[in-house]
Amino acid sequence: MTGIICVNKDKDITSFGVVAKVRGITGERKAGHTGTLDPMATGVLPVMLGGATRFLDFLPDSDKGYRAGFVLGKTTDTLDITGKATGEYEVTASRQDVEKVLDSFRGVISQVPPMYSAVSVDGQRLYDLARKGVEVERQPRQVEIKKLELVDYSDGEYVIDTVCSKGTYIRTLIDDIGRSLGCGAVMTSLTRTLAMGFSLESCVTVKELQYRRDNGIPFDDLIVDVEKLFEAYGKAYVSPAQARRFSNGGALSLDRLRSRLNDGIYRVYSPDGLFLGLGEADNQKQELSVKKLLVRRD
Length: 298
Hints:
This protein is an alpha+beta fold. It has six helices and 18 strands.
């Protein structure tokens, strides 16, 4: 089984836990996810199966979409509602104040990664240090908030929709919003609505996968070709002889290809449109080398 199943992750399970369940249900021994979601988070989690796992290190950067809830007047050490309270503050900000402050967070902004994150500092994961009560200096990072809208407000909880660049921490975004309002803020819920080109409508739950397994319903219609993850890369079509050479790990001469390629990574296809894998064009070397081949049966 080679390809991608996009899972709508449930709350209170780790991303690795989801992968383990998918592996057990499908019977595919090789599986991996394309980007971690915190246990409290739900939503889009693409899981790569079989030969598709060979491409985990070659995933292009892609925008992420989130819907997040938060309340004002509180802060925690994890920046979400599951953490230890670090402060409570009087809230004088109105809904209009919240909508106004969002303007300053649209576009390219600077973020400091939270201590409870997988970022490494001097070879140590920040969350490992945080669990020991150690806080270290973190360097700010540039991220881009491409969409940020207030979509709901009820019973003191605000809900925002955002589309952002890879590496954006929504917990940090909400904490920074709270700081700007002068009353603190903490994330209460998080759903990833977009990842690697997949939306929630593309997803299936683990429960639904188990139902199929229990009732003998095939998974074929849920498996997405791995090449979908690489639509940001251009295409390169090769001849039958070149396809054989490329599939055997051999580099191709750029001057013998049908079209001129710029430097960079390409999706490589046989003449009949079969995806062979990823290649990298280098005009100085005048070759299209193999980055990763798709093995359909491991």
